[in-house]
């Protein structure tokens, strides 16, 4: 299919097919060409749509999804690094370590020792709205539908929502690689404060949420402020020290029937417009 002449509905079908194919073949032999053939379009056409809509390449997304799935298994500690490497398509522990380090900024062994969080790159969500010119809206939102029931089960507790202040400036001034390092740093700040029974997950490109299990407002606020106390600390990128700050807000998970889309809107609207401020 000539994707330049495809309708918005056809483009949506192509992206849906591609994402589903990738998800169903994370532990199989999988190439970008396979993905394009399954989606009934050229590889160049699929790459163009991925970059326009998801801000990433097909190959980069496949690698990140595999590294994310591998990270989850590293935490379970039931398989060796080599077994996990082979399961997700790397031919050796060394090749896996190189790829994993590019994604996570550390080796699989270091990750297994120091991280609780594994959802660096959840499945991308399908863009369901259209721009006025008929193009799919650019999005880097993630599909958290599998967490919907669990989030609802936390009614009466606070969910903390975070985003990175001035993240676009980092990407434009330095590079998207620098932005990735900033994301990892912010995730690590939250991950360090995740006690047993808490859960963190990624909502969007620079948007994160933390299920605290806390019903006391003051305790939730203190937890958020502890995480934000690292605002202004830097990450190093190509000799430059980039200061990183986050904004935070909170959602009290109330009883009632919120649809998935309504719940998602609540989560992404929580962060305060002022860096370092917590909205309650």
Molecular structure report:
The protein has 280 residues and is α+β, with helices and mostly antiparallel strands. The chain has 2 domains: 1-141, Orthogonal Bundle (Arc Repressor Mutant, subunit A), CATH 1.10.10.60; 145-279, 2-Layer Sandwich (Alpha-Beta Plaits). 47% of the residues lie in helices and 12% in strands. The protein has helices at residues 8-24, 32-38, 43-54, 58-76, 81-87, 93-104, 108-114, 148-152, 167-173, 176-192, 217-228, 260-268; strands spanning 158-164, 199-204, 207-211, 234-237, 240-243, 246-252, 278-279. The strands form 2 sheets. The chain has a 5-stranded mixed sheet with strand order 2-3-1-6-7, with helices on both faces. Strands 4-5 form a two-stranded antiparallel ribbon. The longest helix has 19 residues, at 58-76. The model has no long low-confidence stretch (mean pLDDT 87).
**How big is the Rg?**
19 Å
Beta-strand content: 5-15%
The structural domain count equals: 2
Give the end-to-end Cα distance, rounded to a whole number of Å.
50 Å
Low-confidence stretches: none
Mean pLDDT rating:
87
Shape: globular
Count of distinct strands: 7
Kindly report the spatial arrangement of strands forming the biggest sheet: 2-3-1-6-7
For the record, the CATH class of the largest domain is Mainly Alpha
- CATH superfamily heading of the largest domain: Homeodomain-like
CATH level-two architecture of the largest domain: Orthogonal Bundle
Could you tell me the CATH topology label of the largest domain. Answer: Arc Repressor Mutant, subunit A
| Helical residue percent band | 40-55%
Secondary-structure content class: alpha+beta
Element order, helices and strands?
HHHHHHHHEHHEEHEEEHE
Largest sheet: 5 strands, mixed
Number of alpha- plus pi-helical segments? 12
């Amino acid at each position: 299919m000539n994707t330049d002449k495809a309708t918005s509905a056809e483009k949506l079908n192509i992206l849906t097919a591609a994402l589903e194919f990738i998800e169903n073949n994370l532990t199989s032999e999988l190439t970008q060409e396979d993905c394009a053939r399954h989606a009934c379009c050229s590889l160049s056409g699929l790459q163009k749509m991925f970059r326009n809509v998801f801000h990433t390449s097909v190959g980069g997304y496949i690698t990140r999804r595999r590294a994310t799935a591998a990270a989850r298994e590293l935490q379970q500690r039931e398989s060796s690094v080599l077994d996990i490497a082979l399961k997700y398509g790397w031919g050796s522990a060394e090749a896996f370590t190189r790829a994993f380090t590019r994604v996570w900024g550390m080796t699989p062994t270091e990750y297994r020792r120091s991280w609780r969080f594994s959802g660096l790159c959840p499945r991308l969500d399908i863009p369901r709205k259209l721009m006025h010119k008929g193009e799919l809206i650019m999005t880097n939102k993630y599909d958290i539908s599998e967490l919907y029931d669990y989030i609802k089960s936390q009614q009466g507790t606070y969910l903390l929502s975070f985003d990175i202040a001035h993240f676009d400036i980092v990407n434009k001034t330095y590079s998207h690689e620098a932005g990735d390092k900033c994301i990892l740093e912010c995730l690590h700040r939250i991950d360090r404060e995740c006690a047993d029974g808490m859960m963190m997950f990624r909502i969007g490109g620079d948007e994160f949420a933390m299920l605290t299990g806390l019903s006391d407002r003051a305790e939730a606020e203190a937890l958020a402020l502890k995480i934000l106390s690292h605002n202004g600390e830097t990450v190093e990128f190509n000799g430059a020290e980039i200061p990183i700050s986050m904004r935070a807000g909170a959602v009290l998970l109330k009883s009632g029937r919120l649809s998935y889309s309504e719940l998602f809107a609540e989560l992404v609207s929580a962060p305060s417009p002022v860096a370092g401020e917590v909205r309650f």
